């Protein structure tokens, strides 16, 4: 399913194949020989998304851009089932395994491999040819790659990256943080009420 969102329609190369159950919304450009499988969602929430040639987006993966953080996924990259890419730049020939999470402002260098359920946090930069092991967490610039049981160290690095401030423009210490966050985010998402299906 393809939707016009905020006045922009998806642009899909004629040699790309998009499953009829995938959702492509807004300012999305899909390159030649891409494969977008069942249940994938590619949604440009105010910022553009570009997929280079031969990108595979597998079942139930989510790719989301924002006005502050567009998405670019380089050629010959695979986005695994249930993986999530939010406002990030992904180089060529990258493997994002099942369940990986890549957050806003992150940059993944060419030929990197994010193994099953690994996480690349906000504004983290992975140099080319980096491997993030199964379930591990990459955080910071310069990057540190840590196992999940080292949560206190991860949190010390992650806290400085300021997820609520960077993504939502809200101070983490706000007493009613989740009220403000959901109301603000909800108003932004309400723009989908005017979307038009174009396929």
UniProtKB/TrEMBL annotation:
The lineage of its organism: Bacteria, Bacillati, Actinomycetota, Actinomycetes, Micrococcales. This is Gamma carbonic anhydrase family protein. It comes from the Bacteria. InterPro entries: Transf_Hexapept/Carb_Anhydrase, Trimer_LpxA-like_sf.
């Amino acid at each position: 399913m393809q939707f016009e969102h905020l006045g922009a329609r998806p642009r899909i190369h004629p040699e790309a194949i998009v499953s009829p159950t995938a959702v492509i919304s807004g300012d999305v450009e899909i390159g030649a020989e891409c494969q977008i499988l069942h249940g994938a969602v590619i949604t440009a929430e105010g910022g553009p998304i570009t997929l280079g040639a031969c990108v595979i987006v597998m079942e139930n993966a989510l790719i989301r851009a924002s006005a502050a953080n567009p998405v670019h996924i380089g050629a010959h990259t695979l986005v695994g089932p249930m993986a999530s890419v939010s406002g990030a730049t992904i180089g060529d020939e990258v493997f994002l395994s099942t369940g990986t999470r890549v957050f806003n402002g992150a940059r993944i260098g060419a030929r990197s491999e994010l193994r099953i359920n690994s996480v690349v946090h906000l504004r983290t930069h992975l140099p080319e040819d980096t491997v993030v092991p199964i379930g591990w967490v990459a955080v910071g610039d310069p990057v540190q790659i840590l196992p999940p049981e080292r949560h206190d160290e991860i949190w010390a690095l992650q806290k400085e990256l300021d997820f609520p401030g960077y993504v939502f423009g809200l101070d983490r210490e706000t007493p009613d943080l989740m009220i403000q966050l959901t109301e603000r985010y909800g108003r932004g998402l309400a723009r989908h009420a005017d979307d038009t299906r174009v396929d």
